[in-house]
Amino acid sequence: MTIPRMTVITLGVANLAHATRFYSKLFSTPPVTQYEGVTFIPLPGVWLSLYPLEKLVEDTGQNTPLPAPGTFRGFTLAYNARSREEIVGIFELAAEAGAHIVKTPQDTFWGGYSGYFTDPDGYYWEIAWGPMFDFSTQGDLQFKT
Fold this sequence. Notes:
It is a single chain. The protein is of the alpha/beta class. The protein folds into two domains: 60 residues, 2,3-Dihydroxybiphenyl 1,2-Dioxygenase, domain 1; 78 residues, 2,3-Dihydroxybiphenyl 1,2-Dioxygenase, domain 1. The chain is 23% helix and 33% strand. Strands 4-7-6-5 form a four-stranded mixed beta sheet, covered by helices on one side. Strands 1-3-2 form a three-stranded mixed beta sheet. Strand 2 and strand 3 form a beta hairpin. The longest helix has 14 residues. 15% of the residues are buried. The mean pLDDT is 91.
């Protein structure tokens, strides 16, 4: 058996209410709170789950030290935009929602346009556009053929 898709991305957050407000504004999507202490934000293809960091550490059974807040954790979340102009609008919205702009959008070595911001818990987001990408009729990212 294989895992056919990713269904939920869970972020451990320092302040659940603050993170919920940030992501609700960023995605313009109301949160769903079905269980006390966790927020779900349903998005096409995958849900974002926000869970208090100390509870996530406990749930995973880990007791190792966590990276300091704002420290790069070795992965990014990403959104591929349909145009350079869309990226500019997303960065404006992210800043209004409370994101920290890490790298303003700029031309990339691979022929695209990209920038980075962090959410209130220091998770990095890349917002990118690339000429090699296209979108299916359902909005799924794909390589141009």
